[in-house]
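ugh finaly. both done.
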Amino acid sequence: MKRLLIAAGGGGDAITAAMVHAALYGADSPALVLTYAWERLVVDPVPGPRSVRDFTGIDRVAPEVDLITPATTPRSPAGSLLPRLSGELGPRLGLLDPYDGVAGLARRIRAAARWCATDRVDLVDVGGDIVARGDEPTLRSPLGDALAVAACAEAGLATTVYIAGPGLDNEVPLPELLPRIGPADFALRADHSSVVDRVFDWHPSEASALLVAAARGIRGVCGTRDAPRPIPLDDAAGGVHRLSLERVLALNPLARRLAGTTTLAEAEAASRAVCGFSEIARERRRATGSLAGPDGHASGPDDQDVDSVWARFAAWEHDTLAEGIAYVTTRRILEELALTGDRAHALLDTLRAAPRTRSAAPLWRLAGT
């Protein structure tokens, strides 16, 4: 028997699911993590999630059970980090294809449960937007989570929901989030993060990086790229909250509205009705207006030497410290300085060679903190 987990929102949620799996069952316990191929435009320039048709080399181990392996390749112009991630995480990765709506996702979940020889599902979310009402002004990406909740309900399997790192995605404000999810069931520890040790050398997930940092005992205020405000890393940041599927459904009106949908277009319409926006439409607009660099940020000049890049970083670091921020993610550094390619690698290599006080893996500690 394999444990069956679902990474609720795509992006870095599969990384969090691997850590929660290690905490619950042990890192060596066989498991399958179902996840969307729905990643930031810096990774995948095509808006929205990817379907099975967007990949070659998928391993179909059973009807509607499609595994991503290191040999899987996204079809151009699409991009995906899932093939590389599949080679570094303990659990195997299976693709959640949402283009047939909740009905299609439910079929895939039931098929995966049969292949795993289990009748239980663990649904894992990092941050807590899985219990969003839909009207939070900081909410950015509710659809994937709500689809997963509705699909688990339709699949009819016993489902437990785990919310790790409350507030780390900066989508539902903590004062609103914590009363909805109650006290933590357990806390992730540093040893649970060992299963993702090498991932953040190349993966841009920020919420999962913050969760790893919290599990490793890093404390202080962290700045991320897309968050409207800095995120405090405290003792609660590494907590994992356990909720029933029924409780999550009661809290999430979008998940209830999605029941019975058979296309992604219907799901988009439900998101507009409940939340007032479609995140896929936002991605379309962002992709249309994007520049040469990731997520619409133009790259810096190719002829910048290492000293010039370091001088720009030092000035940026001074300003960031003045905001009261002690730690930053790799993604924030590279995108705010508009660094890609060799310039990005040069800066990170310089930071790694600096005194160890700068390293707070997978974050960076700002000088003077």
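ok and the 2nd:
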Amino acid sequence: MRRRDAFAEMTSQQGFECDIYSPLSRRRFVESWNGGQEDLADWLESLPKPVGLMAAHDLRALCVLDACRRRNIAVPEQVAVVGVDNDDVFCEVVDPNLTSISHQAEQIGYQAAALLDRLLQGKTAPAQPVMLPPRNLVPRRSTDIIAVDDVAIASALEFIRRNACAQINVSQIAQHVNLARRSLERRFVKLVGKTPHQILAEERLRRAKQLLIDTDFTLEQIAAMAGFSSSAYLSVVIREHENCTPTEFRHKTFQSGK
């Protein structure tokens, strides 16, 4: 509740409106999990788009992602989602993986121990809870998008994100959103500042780099999984953007703990 109220207050101070999913609206959670998720989906569907959403904690944010999938609401193109606690298990296993606010776990433990020691000495507890600021925001894919009001372009961005690794092309993207290719490209440049081809290439490179960091797949396997025509072409792209070979990139990021 404190997180909700503080977020609403900060939003108001910045001159924005804040819609809150009230517990009173969660009537169907009493009936079943599915009923509760449908109720949440109804509320999400009613919000103006695009919109940013902060959940009280990561597990609740996962409920939001599930509700968005039920109504084909694109994340992050239509709803950008932020959780709280930065629980790696929750944040990394979902699609898209979840942006979250991390807390100061060590400082929380230290303050809790100090408070316990104080109570054991017979001293009174503080009149107010001990408040600690968050550590930082950990950005991931659930907020990694340029918000656009154009429904067709938002849909095209979502289509690219979900299908970049399947070797789609710009003509297929245009067909998906029922636009002529030239019209799609002009609107992309105007609203996003890049062409569909550039966004497609960036998404494939992002996927390839992530696979290099997180797996021990061969370069040939990664090229195929990320939508590149060959491992040789992937090597050229990696060298162009990172000034090193894919193998060097893999070792460099592993050694730096990324």
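summary for the 2nd one i guess: The longest helix spans residues 196-214.
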